[in-house]
Amino acid sequence: MTKEVSRRTMLKAAGGAAALTSLTSIGLGASPAGAVGNGFGLTITDYGDFGRMQYYRFATSNIAWQPGVNVLLPDGYATETWRRYPVMYLLHGGVQDFRKFDMEDDIRGLTAGRKLIVVMPDGGPAGWYSNPVTSFAGAHNWEAFHMNQLIPWIDANFRTYAEYDGRAVSGFSMGGFGALKYTAKYYGHFASVSAHSGPASLRRDAGLVVHWANTSSAFAELNGGTVYGAPFWDQGRVTADNPVERLESYRNKRIFLVCGLDEDVNETPVRNGQREFRGLLNQRGIPHEWYELPGAHFVRRDMLQRDIDGVIARLKKA
Asked: Which of 2, 66, 183, 192 would give a disulfide with 254, using CB separation of 3.0 to 4.6 Å?
Protein backbone atom coordinates (compact mmCIF):
# COMPACT_ATOMS: atom_id res chain seq x y z
CA MET A 1 0.00 0.00 0.00
CA THR A 2 2.98 2.35 0.38
CA LYS A 3 3.06 2.86 -3.38
CA GLU A 4 -0.32 4.59 -3.20
CA VAL A 5 0.93 7.15 -0.69
CA SER A 6 3.93 8.04 -2.80
CA ARG A 7 1.96 8.38 -6.04
CA ARG A 8 -0.92 10.36 -4.58
CA THR A 9 1.35 12.59 -2.48
CA MET A 10 3.03 13.76 -5.66
CA LEU A 11 -0.31 14.32 -7.39
CA LYS A 12 -1.67 16.28 -4.47
CA ALA A 13 1.45 18.44 -4.23
CA ALA A 14 1.13 19.31 -7.91
CA GLY A 15 -2.57 20.09 -8.02
CA GLY A 16 -3.95 20.53 -4.52
CA ALA A 17 -2.87 24.11 -3.90
CA ALA A 18 -4.16 25.33 -7.25
CA ALA A 19 -7.53 23.67 -6.70
CA LEU A 20 -7.89 25.27 -3.29
CA THR A 21 -7.19 28.75 -4.61
CA SER A 22 -9.97 28.30 -7.17
CA LEU A 23 -12.56 28.36 -4.38
CA THR A 24 -14.27 31.75 -4.23
CA SER A 25 -15.38 32.84 -0.79
CA ILE A 26 -18.61 34.77 -0.91
CA GLY A 27 -19.18 35.40 2.77
CA LEU A 28 -20.86 33.43 5.52
CA GLY A 29 -24.48 33.05 6.49
CA ALA A 30 -27.48 32.69 4.21
CA SER A 31 -27.29 30.27 1.29
CA PRO A 32 -29.70 28.15 -0.75
CA ALA A 33 -29.65 25.82 2.25
CA GLY A 34 -31.25 28.53 4.37
CA ALA A 35 -29.77 30.21 7.45
CA VAL A 36 -26.70 28.05 7.89
CA GLY A 37 -24.82 28.87 11.07
CA ASN A 38 -22.33 27.78 13.69
CA GLY A 39 -23.05 25.16 16.31
CA PHE A 40 -22.06 21.82 17.84
CA GLY A 41 -18.54 23.12 18.43
CA LEU A 42 -18.11 24.14 14.77
CA THR A 43 -17.36 27.67 13.60
CA ILE A 44 -17.64 28.39 9.88
CA THR A 45 -14.46 30.08 8.68
CA ASP A 46 -15.07 29.96 4.91
CA TYR A 47 -18.05 29.37 2.66
CA GLY A 48 -18.64 29.12 -1.07
CA ASP A 49 -21.83 28.79 -3.11
CA PHE A 50 -21.31 26.77 -6.30
CA GLY A 51 -24.93 26.16 -7.21
CA ARG A 52 -25.90 22.72 -5.98
CA MET A 53 -22.50 22.44 -4.26
CA GLN A 54 -22.08 24.26 -0.96
CA TYR A 55 -18.54 24.44 0.43
CA TYR A 56 -17.74 25.02 4.12
CA ARG A 57 -14.59 25.15 6.19
CA PHE A 58 -14.72 24.87 9.97
CA ALA A 59 -12.72 25.61 13.05
CA THR A 60 -13.13 22.80 15.59
CA SER A 61 -11.24 21.72 18.69
CA ASN A 62 -11.22 18.17 17.34
CA ILE A 63 -8.91 19.00 14.42
CA ALA A 64 -5.70 21.06 14.63
CA TRP A 65 -6.40 22.64 11.24
CA GLN A 66 -9.65 23.71 9.57
CA PRO A 67 -11.31 20.81 7.69
CA GLY A 68 -13.45 21.36 4.62
CA VAL A 69 -16.82 19.83 3.77
CA ASN A 70 -18.73 19.80 0.49
CA VAL A 71 -22.53 19.53 0.75
CA LEU A 72 -24.17 18.63 -2.56
CA LEU A 73 -27.84 19.59 -2.63
CA PRO A 74 -30.47 18.04 -4.91
CA ASP A 75 -32.07 19.92 -7.78
CA GLY A 76 -35.00 21.95 -6.45
CA TYR A 77 -33.72 22.19 -2.87
CA ALA A 78 -33.98 25.99 -2.79
CA THR A 79 -37.57 26.11 -4.09
CA GLU A 80 -39.18 22.96 -2.64
CA THR A 81 -38.82 24.25 0.90
CA TRP A 82 -41.40 21.86 2.36
CA ARG A 83 -39.36 18.79 1.36
CA ARG A 84 -36.91 16.85 3.51
CA TYR A 85 -34.22 14.60 2.05
CA PRO A 86 -32.20 11.50 2.87
CA VAL A 87 -28.44 12.01 3.26
CA MET A 88 -25.47 10.04 1.97
CA TYR A 89 -22.12 10.65 3.69
CA LEU A 90 -19.35 9.96 1.18
CA LEU A 91 -15.84 9.44 2.59
CA HIS A 92 -12.60 9.85 0.64
CA GLY A 93 -9.53 7.64 0.63
CA GLY A 94 -5.95 8.11 1.83
CA VAL A 95 -3.97 11.17 0.70
CA GLN A 96 -7.18 12.66 -0.69
CA ASP A 97 -9.57 15.28 0.68
CA PHE A 98 -13.19 16.44 0.63
CA ARG A 99 -12.98 17.45 -3.07
CA LYS A 100 -12.18 13.93 -4.33
CA PHE A 101 -15.65 12.90 -5.51
CA ASP A 102 -16.36 16.26 -7.13
CA MET A 103 -13.01 16.62 -8.88
CA GLU A 104 -12.47 12.99 -9.90
CA ASP A 105 -15.78 11.11 -9.91
CA ASP A 106 -18.46 13.49 -11.23
CA ILE A 107 -20.63 13.29 -8.14
CA ARG A 108 -22.77 16.14 -9.50
CA GLY A 109 -23.55 14.20 -12.66
CA LEU A 110 -24.16 10.95 -10.78
CA THR A 111 -26.76 12.61 -8.54
CA ALA A 112 -28.43 14.90 -11.11
CA GLY A 113 -32.20 14.69 -10.76
CA ARG A 114 -31.95 12.49 -7.68
CA LYS A 115 -33.52 13.57 -4.40
CA LEU A 116 -30.52 13.05 -2.15
CA ILE A 117 -28.14 15.26 -0.15
CA VAL A 118 -24.51 14.11 -0.37
CA VAL A 119 -22.08 15.24 2.36
CA MET A 120 -18.36 14.88 1.59
CA PRO A 121 -16.13 15.79 4.55
CA ASP A 122 -12.39 15.94 5.03
CA GLY A 123 -11.07 12.87 6.78
CA GLY A 124 -7.37 13.70 6.81
CA PRO A 125 -4.64 12.36 4.52
CA ALA A 126 -4.32 9.31 6.78
CA GLY A 127 -6.87 9.91 9.53
CA TRP A 128 -8.51 6.49 9.12
CA TYR A 129 -11.78 7.98 10.41
CA SER A 130 -10.48 7.54 13.93
CA ASN A 131 -9.44 9.31 17.10
CA PRO A 132 -5.77 8.29 17.25
CA VAL A 133 -4.10 6.69 20.24
CA THR A 134 -1.28 9.23 19.97
CA SER A 135 -0.71 12.42 17.97
CA PHE A 136 2.31 14.74 17.96
CA ALA A 137 0.63 17.14 15.53
CA GLY A 138 -2.25 18.45 17.62
CA ALA A 139 -5.80 17.14 17.61
CA HIS A 140 -6.74 14.82 14.74
CA ASN A 141 -9.95 13.36 16.14
CA TRP A 142 -11.74 12.65 12.87
CA GLU A 143 -14.26 10.26 14.37
CA ALA A 144 -15.36 12.81 16.97
CA PHE A 145 -15.54 15.57 14.35
CA HIS A 146 -17.74 13.52 12.02
CA MET A 147 -19.99 11.73 14.49
CA ASN A 148 -20.34 14.24 17.32
CA GLN A 149 -20.20 17.50 15.40
CA LEU A 150 -20.71 17.26 11.64
CA ILE A 151 -23.73 14.94 11.54
CA PRO A 152 -25.75 16.96 14.08
CA TRP A 153 -24.66 20.19 12.34
CA ILE A 154 -25.91 18.87 8.99
CA ASP A 155 -29.22 17.81 10.51
CA ALA A 156 -29.65 21.21 12.19
CA ASN A 157 -28.83 23.26 9.10
CA PHE A 158 -30.29 21.28 6.19
CA ARG A 159 -33.69 19.73 5.61
CA THR A 160 -32.71 16.15 6.33
CA TYR A 161 -34.35 13.12 7.88
CA ALA A 162 -32.36 13.08 11.13
CA GLU A 163 -32.96 9.39 11.75
CA TYR A 164 -31.69 5.91 10.99
CA ASP A 165 -33.72 5.46 7.79
CA GLY A 166 -32.59 8.87 6.57
CA ARG A 167 -28.83 8.24 6.46
CA ALA A 168 -26.33 6.22 4.45
CA VAL A 169 -22.54 6.16 4.56
CA SER A 170 -20.24 5.14 1.72
CA GLY A 171 -16.55 5.52 0.97
CA PHE A 172 -13.53 4.62 -1.11
CA SER A 173 -10.43 2.82 0.19
CA MET A 174 -9.68 4.27 3.66
CA GLY A 175 -13.13 5.88 3.40
CA GLY A 176 -14.73 2.50 2.70
CA PHE A 177 -13.21 1.25 5.92
CA GLY A 178 -14.49 4.38 7.66
CA ALA A 179 -18.00 3.71 6.37
CA LEU A 180 -17.94 0.12 7.62
CA LYS A 181 -16.48 1.19 10.96
CA TYR A 182 -18.96 4.03 11.58
CA THR A 183 -21.90 1.77 10.73
CA ALA A 184 -20.84 -0.85 13.26
CA LYS A 185 -19.85 1.49 16.09
CA TYR A 186 -22.85 3.83 15.71
CA TYR A 187 -25.55 1.26 15.14
CA GLY A 188 -28.55 3.58 14.93
CA HIS A 189 -27.03 6.14 12.58
CA PHE A 190 -26.95 4.52 9.12
CA ALA A 191 -29.39 2.21 7.33
CA SER A 192 -27.03 1.66 4.37
CA VAL A 193 -23.25 1.13 4.20
CA SER A 194 -21.01 0.84 1.15
CA ALA A 195 -17.30 0.14 0.72
CA HIS A 196 -15.66 0.77 -2.66
CA SER A 197 -12.31 -1.03 -2.39
CA GLY A 198 -12.47 -0.52 1.38
CA PRO A 199 -10.77 -2.87 3.88
CA ALA A 200 -13.16 -4.98 5.95
CA SER A 201 -10.70 -6.98 8.07
CA LEU A 202 -8.02 -5.43 10.30
CA ARG A 203 -6.28 -8.45 11.83
CA ARG A 204 -5.89 -10.80 8.84
CA ASP A 205 -2.52 -11.18 7.10
CA ALA A 206 -0.67 -10.54 10.36
CA GLY A 207 -2.59 -7.32 10.95
CA LEU A 208 -1.60 -5.78 7.63
CA VAL A 209 -4.32 -3.09 7.63
CA VAL A 210 -3.58 -2.06 11.23
CA HIS A 211 0.12 -1.77 10.38
CA TRP A 212 -0.77 0.26 7.29
CA ALA A 213 -3.03 2.55 9.31
CA ASN A 214 -0.29 3.09 11.90
CA THR A 215 2.47 3.64 9.34
CA SER A 216 0.51 5.97 7.06
CA SER A 217 -0.91 8.00 9.95
CA ALA A 218 2.53 8.41 11.52
CA PHE A 219 3.96 9.61 8.20
CA ALA A 220 1.16 11.74 6.77
CA GLU A 221 -0.97 12.84 9.71
CA LEU A 222 0.31 12.50 13.26
CA ASN A 223 4.04 13.37 13.16
CA GLY A 224 5.00 9.97 14.49
CA GLY A 225 1.80 9.24 16.41
CA THR A 226 -0.42 6.31 15.45
CA VAL A 227 -4.08 5.42 15.06
CA TYR A 228 -3.95 2.12 16.97
CA GLY A 229 -0.76 2.37 19.03
CA ALA A 230 2.75 1.08 18.36
CA PRO A 231 4.61 -1.11 18.98
CA PHE A 232 1.66 -2.53 20.94
CA TRP A 233 -1.87 -2.10 19.64
CA ASP A 234 -4.82 -0.92 21.69
CA GLN A 235 -6.57 -4.25 21.20
CA GLY A 236 -9.95 -3.02 22.41
CA ARG A 237 -9.89 -0.24 19.86
CA VAL A 238 -8.94 -2.62 17.05
CA THR A 239 -11.83 -4.92 17.96
CA ALA A 240 -14.29 -2.02 18.17
CA ASP A 241 -13.27 -0.84 14.68
CA ASN A 242 -12.93 -4.22 12.96
CA PRO A 243 -15.90 -5.01 10.67
CA VAL A 244 -15.35 -8.78 10.78
CA GLU A 245 -15.63 -8.68 14.58
CA ARG A 246 -18.85 -6.61 14.54
CA LEU A 247 -21.04 -8.72 12.26
CA GLU A 248 -24.35 -8.37 14.10
CA SER A 249 -24.07 -4.60 13.79
CA TYR A 250 -24.73 -4.97 10.05
CA ARG A 251 -27.96 -6.92 10.36
CA ASN A 252 -31.03 -5.29 8.79
CA LYS A 253 -28.88 -2.80 6.89
CA ARG A 254 -28.19 -2.47 3.18
CA ILE A 255 -24.58 -3.59 2.58
CA PHE A 256 -22.80 -2.83 -0.72
CA LEU A 257 -19.25 -4.06 -1.37
CA VAL A 258 -17.00 -3.55 -4.40
CA CYS A 259 -13.40 -4.56 -5.06
CA GLY A 260 -11.09 -5.23 -7.99
CA LEU A 261 -9.67 -8.51 -9.28
CA ASP A 262 -6.18 -7.30 -10.16
CA GLU A 263 -3.19 -8.22 -8.01
CA ASP A 264 -2.16 -4.91 -6.51
CA VAL A 265 -0.44 -3.62 -3.37
CA ASN A 266 -3.73 -2.02 -2.31
CA GLU A 267 -6.43 -4.17 -3.87
CA THR A 268 -5.13 -7.64 -3.05
CA PRO A 269 -5.44 -7.25 0.76
CA VAL A 270 -8.72 -5.35 0.31
CA ARG A 271 -10.17 -8.20 -1.76
CA ASN A 272 -9.00 -10.82 0.75
CA GLY A 273 -10.58 -8.88 3.61
CA GLN A 274 -13.86 -8.33 1.78
CA ARG A 275 -14.04 -12.04 0.96
CA GLU A 276 -13.54 -12.88 4.63
CA PHE A 277 -16.23 -10.38 5.61
CA ARG A 278 -18.67 -11.70 3.01
CA GLY A 279 -18.11 -15.28 4.12
CA LEU A 280 -18.85 -14.38 7.73
CA LEU A 281 -21.95 -12.44 6.74
CA ASN A 282 -23.15 -15.48 4.81
CA GLN A 283 -22.63 -17.68 7.87
CA ARG A 284 -24.81 -15.30 9.90
CA GLY A 285 -27.48 -15.10 7.19
CA ILE A 286 -26.95 -11.35 6.74
CA PRO A 287 -27.80 -10.28 3.17
CA HIS A 288 -25.34 -8.14 1.21
CA GLU A 289 -24.65 -7.04 -2.34
CA TRP A 290 -21.13 -7.51 -3.69
CA TYR A 291 -19.09 -7.15 -6.85
CA GLU A 292 -15.59 -8.22 -7.87
CA LEU A 293 -14.62 -6.53 -11.12
CA PRO A 294 -11.55 -6.19 -13.39
CA GLY A 295 -9.02 -3.57 -12.37
CA ALA A 296 -7.35 -2.47 -9.18
CA HIS A 297 -7.77 0.35 -6.67
CA PHE A 298 -10.10 3.07 -7.97
CA VAL A 299 -13.72 4.22 -7.86
CA ARG A 300 -15.77 2.60 -10.60
CA ARG A 301 -18.29 5.10 -11.93
CA ASP A 302 -20.96 2.51 -12.72
CA MET A 303 -20.64 1.02 -9.23
CA LEU A 304 -20.88 4.43 -7.57
CA GLN A 305 -24.01 5.12 -9.64
CA ARG A 306 -25.47 1.75 -8.64
CA ASP A 307 -24.61 2.51 -5.04
CA ILE A 308 -26.30 5.92 -5.10
CA ASP A 309 -29.45 4.47 -6.65
CA GLY A 310 -29.46 1.70 -4.05
CA VAL A 311 -29.11 4.22 -1.24
CA ILE A 312 -32.11 6.16 -2.54
CA ALA A 313 -34.14 2.96 -2.82
CA ARG A 314 -33.29 1.96 0.77
CA LEU A 315 -33.68 5.28 2.59
CA LYS A 316 -36.76 7.27 3.46
CA LYS A 317 -38.04 9.09 0.38
CA ALA A 318 -37.79 12.85 -0.08
From this structure: 192
